[in-house]
């Protein structure tokens, strides 16, 4: 018990830091107040992904002069659509692809608000371009039975922990044919997270991996496959790496979504067309109407500081030259691996949170698009290929698109787009016996096709169905294997300590990205957290700039079940006393 109390003491100090940061700008407010006297309104946003565009949106609405600098020639970052070069004929657009399936889940709240504020030329808003996904299939290989789960409301009791555990266990047992013992154990471990106080979540479960929390190492291979690594619809939640806290957040959010509690839309939704056409292009058009300027082919390389402020930035142009960027406020909304390269000694000395980012890890998750000669007989929803070594999740995306595929994109012979996320690039595949990183682009496509076919009946994906394929253009071939120009943050155990706030200790520097600390009920890498981080960066600029009153930048907090409130209060007292969670018996 003494050991537990000692560890709890260190963790409590970390938790206090979490609480102070979540309440507002904290001690750095005075540094920004000094900058406010300049009265500047020019904002440079580096990065045109979801976070950068969100910050630009919020600031432009409040009268700031915003310029967005983007290293590519198109906006959208990882959310943008990819088009197969020279594939459109007869007036059709090029064959469209995506980095992933672009899920907009019911537990998102910040992103849907932004979507509702983007008008469409013909009336309505971008939010109206979302289509509900009504089915999820858990496909199996090796003769194991696949399961299709309708996305309909589920109403378990949340008021009694025992009943909730039994309900969750029964669902697992019935759906995945797990043993009663393993189902009950997993359900209990989930409910422990649902009913843990915030202090324990950030002081204990943040430092325990999901794999260890659910005791996957001592369970059956089926348990490990299903609950310790196979079901990965949300790619950021890698079970062997992510913390119990982060994964618990994800499962709790999904629970609320499928029970219809506090949701903002269907439990699972995708856009009814390629993401750029359904969302990014209208967004950019709206931002331009608000006065936002876009400077493409500009990659920020340096931030120059003096007297605790960024005085200018230097960007590399597409032609290899350099360009000076002057602004009053700077928002770094580039991916975490690129942001770290900007932090020189002066910036790291000014804000230790920037230096801590060196410990963050990045991972790969990229999409392969298969264009089919006729629609495949797969569900109009996500298919988790449970036994695939590369952790595949596919969706017949164009089944949910509004425009007729063959008449709109490609050469008229491709009638459907099957989008596949590849989340594991380090495990050997079934065709070549090599990890995806060590394959060629063509081998990746063939391997993914083979792994999907192993999970579906041969008649569903015959080779004759394949028209062509396109692998995410960020994946390129090099002498030592594949390279990825678009890695993203890996939510790993303890990584919360390494993530910075949107408001930095540097007088006019703000951060936006899914790697920035966010304070809704989820903080794993996603479009939702990128959107929230963009809002928090914009709020920081607004507070620091001062001047006439302007509408605050709102952030939305996710749903919290009132039935869990008492259990969390009890756990808070047990945490204070150095006691484990009431349900945490260690068995």
From TrEMBL:
Gene3D superfamilies in the record: FAD/NAD(P)-binding domain (3.50.50.60)
PROSITE patterns in UniProt: TAT
SUPFAM superfamilies, per database record: FAD/NAD(P)-binding domain (SSF51905)
Domain of life the protein comes from: Bacteria
Originating species: Streptomyces luteireticuli
Protein name from the UniProt record: FAD-dependent oxidoreductase
Pfam families: Amino_oxidase
Domain Amine oxidase, chain residue ranges per copy: 50-542
InterPro entries in the cross-refs: Amino_oxidase, FAD/NAD-bd_sf, TAT_signal, Zeta_carotene_desat/Oxidored
